[in-house]
Design goal:
The complex is a heterodimer of chains A (about 110) and B (about 110).
Chain A lengths: L4 E3 L2 E4 L5 E6 L6 E7 L6 E7 L2 E5 L6 E5 L5 E5 L8 E8 L9 E2 L3 E5 L1
Parallel strand pairs in A: 2-11
Antiparallel strand pairs in A: 1-3, 3-8, 4-5, 4-9, 5-6, 7-8, 9-10, 9-11
Chain B lengths: L3 E4 L2 E5 L4 E7 L4 E9 L6 E7 L4 E4 L2 E6 L4 E6 L8 E9 L6 E3 L3 E6 L1
Parallel strand pairs in B: 2-11
Antiparallel strand pairs in B: 1-3, 3-8, 4-5, 4-9, 6-7, 7-8, 9-10, 9-11
The chains are: A mainly beta (about 110), B mainly beta (about 110).
């Protein structure tokens, strides 16, 4: 158990809809990262937050947004969903924003767009 | 362009055998290199993190090596077990203000009885 909690585990919705994915980091971790993993693809980094502030941005679409709240949990909002957004979305956390910190991953939210 | 390439793409071995997975990278400037294990449908789990000055690091039956001159790393698995069946992902961190993690596509390992 990594200590990172993601909800929901599964989400099924239709094109054009909007969903929110939630992540609770490990106790004491200040950094949260979001990743997308499509079928048989590598992990694609989306965005990182550190102590409530955006720290780094990856290949995140304009239709996607995220935030980290004062209690350090984070939400990833996906809007105007398209079929290609179907993927596993992982959240990871680390103690700080340092690049030598290991990231601890949750078990992901599987998003299916019908 | 910063890239991480892993080989082989997939590998099948018999239980009890050893195997070695390869990772070549072109990331510069280099900060550290990580190996993760990802079971199907689960999040990746960190195996090792190595900085520029470290040549080898072990975690149980997993041993990672790093040659920063040739920009190559390997992950050696000793006495494989069925539970080693997973994807093994090499990740390289760039140094500096960027500090991006560049993820490889992974090697899919199947350990058969």
């Amino acid at each position: 158990d990594s200590g990172v909690t993601q909800t929901p585990k599964h989400l099924i919705t239709a094109t054009g809809q909007r969903v929110t994915l939630r992540c609770s980091p490990r106790s004491g971790d200040l950094s949260v990262y979001w990743y997308q993993q499509s079928l048989d693809q590598g992990l694609q980094f989306l965005i990182q937050y550190y102590n409530g502030e955006e720290r780094a941005k990856g290949n995140i679409l304009e239709r996607f947004s995220a935030q980290q709240f004062p209690d350090l949990h984070s939400e990833l909002n996906l809007s105007s969903l398209e079929l290609g957004d179907s993927a596993l979305y992982f959240c990871a956390s680390s103690a700080s924003s340092g690049s030598n910190q290991p990231q601890h991953f949750g078990d992901g939210t599987r998003l299916s767009i019908l | 362009k910063n890239q991480v390439e892993q080989s082989p793409q997939s590998l099948i071995i018999l239980e009890g055998k050893n195997c070695t997975l390869q990772c070549n990278y072109t990331v510069s400037p280099f900060s550290n290199l990580r190996w993760y294990k990802q079971d199907t449908g689960r999040g990746p789990v960190s195996l090792t993190i190595m900085t520029f000055s470290e040549n080898t690091k072990s975690n149980g039956r997993y041993t990672a090596t790093l040659d920063a001159d040739t920009k190559q790393s390997s992950l050696h698995i000793t006495a494989s077990q069925l539970s080693d069946s997973a994807s093994y992902i090499c990740v390289v961190s760039a140094a500096g203000n960027n500090r991006k993690l560049i993820w490889g596509l992974g090697t899919s390992l199947a350990v058969n009885p």
